[in-house]
Structure formats: structure tokens, C-alpha cells
Design a protein that fits this description.
Radius of gyration: 20 Å
Number of helices: 19
Distance between the termini: 25 Å
Helix content: 55-70%
Length: 362
């Protein structure tokens, strides 16, 4: 935990300094530090042990095209295991870390104003459902990075290219298929504002009240898309987070309303990110009854790294602007604290270990 805090704060400071043209190199440096931090991790995260064990098991099978229909591992992921067999699992982790950091470097550079780089890095590191959880969910993190790369094509209304990218992402985590409808969001030019807040609020509480009906509809959808293997997530409860408290629920509702309202002040490209972020909030009520929805919501939460900086800078009243910024930071730090002290994640993250502790290259 201490290592994560120190590295995180160092990178936030470096990203803050990047606002000055003479120090613009500090932002790439911050991302390089995060890359090293992630690439040398060892048994850090809930699923790390499972992934390294499966790497050994699958590569012990002679057939290159082997796949297990009863297993949750997609063909694309098994192919990655095969390709990295000569190089080892550590090499795979290094390449995946480079991809993740590269994607978020591109995303922040493209969509976040220079003076707000620090806030984007703060969210990426200290919101536990970005960097920390991504370090554990290898397959979905890769799929999420690929889905993020489809955003410019969605904006340009090149829905076929965007759909192909999402389909490709589903080769590593099948859940990405469910996101195919978002490729048409580029055609939605409607500014939300007050009407968006009302519609979003009605949908949010309607889903909250009709959880069981929506749950049944999702089960049918999973079956029709050939994703029944993920139905076990529907049996699992929500993940521990600040949302378990009434205050946290009110906070998330407030953030959703603010995202919907301040979308009207953005240009069409940034407005698309606001719409994606707003959609992610609709998964929150369902996340209370099934972990699957929390995982699906994670795909749409990623644009939040750019949405929140733009939202805060769009607030005209200085007191409200600063208050909103501090509120977001306070809840992020609180969730970070809860994450490291939770029964679900704590034991797997509290001690940061590196590959240098291994006696052999695995």
C-alpha cells in the first residue's frame, strides 16, 4: 500500500509540473514510472496467481489451437499464452503493462487539458477500479484498453471500424460484445443539460426499483449472445466500495447529475465521453445485486478519467468548482482506503512484490 501511495503521489506531482512547457517531459516520465511499477509486479492482485498458473497449464498442452469450451478463457487469451510461451509469463505482463500505459497516455494526451493531467493521473492511480483492479483482471483490462481505442471512431461515426475493434476486444474478454450498441453514440448530437438530468435520474431509479426484471433480461441476453459462462457473476454480490454506504450512493447520484448537466458545455467530441460516463452510472443500481454489472460498468467508467477534469473546469462558480474537485478527491481517497482494507482485495494488494523476488524467470 505504501509503495502505491508513494509512486502515485510522485506521478501526480510530475503530471502537475507538465503544465509548464519547459517541463512537459514530466508527464511522459510519470507514465514511464507507472509502466515500470506495473510491469515488475509479482503476485499482486487477486487473480495474479490464477493467471500465472494457467499460463503453465495451457502451455503444457501440445496442441497450439487448444481451447476448453467449459473454461472461461477466450481463444484470443489462450493464443497470447501460446505466443509468449518462449518468453515467459513475466514478459507477457510487461507487454500488457506497456499496452495499458500506452493507451492511457494517448487518451489523457488527446482528451485532457495539460493543466489537468495531474487530476487524470490521480484518478487513474487512486480510484481503485482503474489501475489497481486492472492489475488483477488481465483479460478484461486488455479488452477495456481496446474498447477505449474505439472512441475516436465512434465520434467520427465510423461505426464499422469501432465495432470491429470491440469484437476484437471480445476475443480476450467476451463481455465486450455487450458494448457493441455504443458504436452508434456518435450519431447522438443531443445536448443533455437539465433534460438529461431528469431522464438520467428517472432511468437510474427505475433500474434501482426494477432490478429483478432487468436481471432476468440480462440473463436472457447473455444466453442469446453465447455468454452464459459469465452468468455465475450474476450470483455474486456487489463488490465492496464506498457505494455500500448511503452517503456513497448520494455522491454517485450527484456525480451522475453533474456529468449529465455539464455535458451541454462541452464540444461534441468531449460530449461523447460525458455520455459514456453517464451510461456507466446506470450500472450502479444493478451492481448492488450482481457483480457482472459492476464489471460491465467498468468499460464505461474509463472515460471518467477525462470527463471529471472537463466537468470541474466547466463550473463557473469558483467555490463550487473547488468544492466539487475536493469532493471527488475525498471520495476517491476514501475508496482507496476501503479497497486496501477490504476482505476481498486487502490481502492481495497490501504488500507490493516484484519479479525480482522470484528465483527464476517464469
Amino acid at each position: 500500500m505504501i509503495e502505491t501511495i508513494v509512486i502515485g503521489l510522485l506521478c501526480v506531482v510530475l503530471a502537475f509540473l507538465a503544465r509548464y512547457k519547459r517541463l512537459s517531459w514530466t508527464f511522459p516520465l510519470a507514465m514511464v514510472i507507472l509502466f515500470v511499477f506495473l510491469s515488475i509486479r509479482y503476485y499482486w492482485g487477486n487473480d495474479y496467481e490464477q493467471y500465472i498458473d494457467k499460463f503453465t497449464i495451457y502451455n503444457a498442452i501440445d496442441r497450439f489451437d487448444y481451447s476448453d469450451p467449459d473454461e472461461r478463457w477466450e481463444v484470443g487469451w489462450i493464443l497470447l499464452y501460446r505466443l509468449f510461451k518462449p518468453l515467459g509469463f513475466f514478459s507477457l505482463v510487461i507487454v500488457l503493462s506497456a499496452f495499458e500505459i500506452g493507451v492511457y497516455y494517448w487518451f489523457i494526451k488527446k482528451y485532457v487539458p495539460r493543466e489537468w493531467y495531474w487530476f487524470a493521473i490521480f484518478l487513474y492511480v487512486f480510484n481503485p477500479y482503474f489501475m489497481l483492479v486492472h492489475a488483477s483482471m488481465f483479460r478484461q483490462a486488455l479488452a477495456m484498453g481496446l474498447v477505449l481505442l474505439s472512441v475516436p471512431y465512434i465520434f467520427k461515426k465510423r461505426f464499422i471500424v469501432a465495432a470491429l475493434i470491440i469484437v476484437f476486444a471480445s476475443l480476450f474478454h467476451s463481455s465486450a460484445k455487450i458494448l457493441l450498441p455504443i458504436v452508434f453514440l456518435g450519431y447522438l448530437n443531443w445536448k443533455m443539460g437539465n433534460k438529461g438530468v431528469i431522464i438520467g435520474g428517472v432511468l437510474f431509479f427505475a433500474i434501482l426499483l426494477l432490478q429483478n426484471i432487468v436481471l432476468h433480461m440480462v440473463e436472457e441476453t447473455l444466453s442469446s449472445l453465447g455468454l452464459s459462462k459469465y452468468a455465475y457473476y450474476l450470483e455474486e454480490g456487489k463488490e465492496t466500495s464506498e457505494l455500500a454506504t448511503g452517503v456513497g450512493f448520494v455522491y454517485q447520484t450527484l456525480m451522475m447529475c453533474m456529468v449529465l448537466y455539464y455535458e451541454k458545455k462541452q464540444d461534441r467530441e468531449i460530449g461523447l465521453l460525458f455520455k459514456l460516463t453517464a451510461l456507466s452510472f446506470l450500472f450502479i443500481p444493478l451492481g448492488f445485486v450482481a457483480q457482472l454489472f459492476s464489471r460491465l460498468g467498468m468499460y464505461l467508467q474509463v472515460p471518467m478519467i477525462a470527463t471529471y477534469p472537463h466537468m470541474v473546469r466547466s463550473i463557473d462558480n469558483k467555490i463550487v468548482r473547488v468544492g466539487t474537485l475536493l469532493l471527488i478527491m475525498a471520495f476517491t481517497v476514501y475508496d482507496f482506503h476501503v479497497f486496501f482494507n477490504s476482505e476481498i482485495y486487502g490481502d492481495f494488494y497490501i504488500e507490493y512484490r516484484t519479479i525480482f523476488e522470484s528465483f527464476v524467470w517464469r
